[in-house]
Amino acid sequence: MPKENKRIYTVSEITQGIKSLLEEKIGEIWLEGEISNFKAATSGHFYFSLKDNNALIAGAMFAYANKGLKFKIEDGLKVLCFGKIAVFAPRGQYQIIVEKIEPVGAGAQQLALEQLKKKLQAEGLFDLARKRALPAMPFHIGIVTSAAGAAVRDILQILQKGAGGVDLIIRSARVQGEGAYLEIAQAIEDLNAFGKVDLIIVSRGGGSSEDLWSFNEEIVARAIYNSKIPVVSAVGHQINTTLADLAADVYVETPSAAAKLIVDSKNILLAQLADRQHDLFFFIKNILADFENELTAFAHALKSPRDRLLEKQQQLDELFVNLQHQIRHTLQLSLERSSSLISRLSVLNPLAILGRGYSLSTLIKGETILKDFKQLKKGDLVKTILGRGAFISSVQEVIND
User: Fold this and answer.
1) Pairing of strands 140-145, 167-172
2) Cβ atoms within 10 Å, residue 208
3) Do residues 360 and 384 lie in contact, with contact meaning Cβ atoms separated by under 8 Å?
């Protein structure tokens, strides 16, 4: 074909033509697919791809459209998108500009709840190991609920009958509707700041899942988790468990059950006190009985000073008599022993021998007793002791016979 008869397009012209054709012919549509290659730009815009088993299309969701999104978009999530087909001219790429997006299967709200639950679970907000035991008997209870609701009336009625001595501090807060979750979280923080509370009950009456949704908000779960005071969640429900329930130290299904929990604690404590009182009564009774027995025995053993003096005098008399007897006995033994010794000495006395006709001779010089003739020589002077008296003689002759 001659050049002058050819219709030559620029890239921009053909891209613009395709853009006009797609946008005019297809327009706004609902498109189902699986999210892949998801990216959140710093501008707040979302960019991703939608795919099925055989094809893929680029997608974009600008910040104004995703601002109120309740669930988190992530790869692998199957979604239903509403938007319009457009062409991104710089790359010559067609795409869908998403205005609305919904998860396929579970609703957006439920999906958001599951995602938040996984997140908080990973952070340890629901760990059983961190849950605190409730006080044995809370005497000051803070209640977070609507002051005009049925929940607070149920709690007051049960506690008034079963635990009248308990003080209640009611921190009123809206429990449903837009912004209610902020009031609930603030009420928990206020009771912690107040400090004079042993236990906090976060409560509301029954309702639909939508009515209870304030108790599934992250800020409420974190306020319960961060509370320095033990928390009981008493959100009226039968099936669904809220994030407030999972974060609380204890959760029950109704406000009435929370009040009964307090009454049961009081009754258990009273029963324990009764047992202790019974044990203490018998312990004291046994001590008094033992003391009475000891006192009686002591009274029997106790005598008047005069009786004790007479008793001691009698003991002294007996000791004196025994002492006299012992002295006489000792003297008698000494006398007999002395007589025996005198007799033995008399037998051994050499003078007694001399009395029987014998004599004892000694040399005058040295007074040596003479026993052998060899001790003498002629001329020695000898002293001879008789049974009576003595004499001195001179040796004239020594006889060896």
Assistant:
1) parallel
2) 10
3) yes
Query: Token pair for residue 224?
Result: 């319960």
For residue 342, give the 3-state DSSP assignment: helix
Output the CA torsion sign for 85, 89, 94, 97: negative
Bridge pairing between strands 56-61 and 93-103 = parallel
pLDDT of amino acid 48: 92
State the average pLDDT over residues 219-225.
Answer: 92
Distances (CA, A) of 179 to 182, 186, 215, 333: 5, 11, 11, 121
> At 298, which amino acid appears?
F
Token pair of 249 as six digits? 């130290």
User: Which backbone phi and psi does 39 adopt, to 5 degrees?
Assistant: -145, 135
Evaluated on CA atoms 272, 273, 278, 284, the torsion sign reads positive
The angle at the Cα of 139, spanning 135 to 141, to the nearest 5 degrees, equals 85
Residue showing tokens 């088993």: 53
Q: Which of 224, 262, 229, 263 is nearest to 244 (CA)?
A: 224
Decide which of 140 and 207 is more confident.
140
User: Comparing C-alpha atoms, which of 268, 272, 238 is closest to residue 253?
Assistant: 238
List the domains of the chain with CATH numbers: 3-105 (2.40.50.140), 124-267 (3.40.50.2300), 353-394 (no CATH)
What are the φ/ψ torsions at residue 115 (nearest 5 degrees)? -65, -40
Backbone phi, psi, residue 98, to 5°: -85, 130
Q: Is the pLDDT of residue 365 over 70?
A: yes
Instruction: Name the nearest CA neighbour of 126 among 218, 202, 211.
Output: 218
Position 94 pLDDT exceeds 70: yes
Percentage of the chain with pLDDT > 90? Answer: 11
pTM of the model: 0.50
* Dist. CA 336–CA 79, nearest whole Å: 137
The amino acid at residue 338 is S
Beta-bridge mates of residue 261: none
- Tell me how crowded residue 188 is: count the other CB atoms within 10 A of its CB: 27
Burial 217-239 (b: 16+ CB within 10 A, else e): beebbbbbbebebbbbbbbbbee
- Is pLDDT of 356 > 80? no
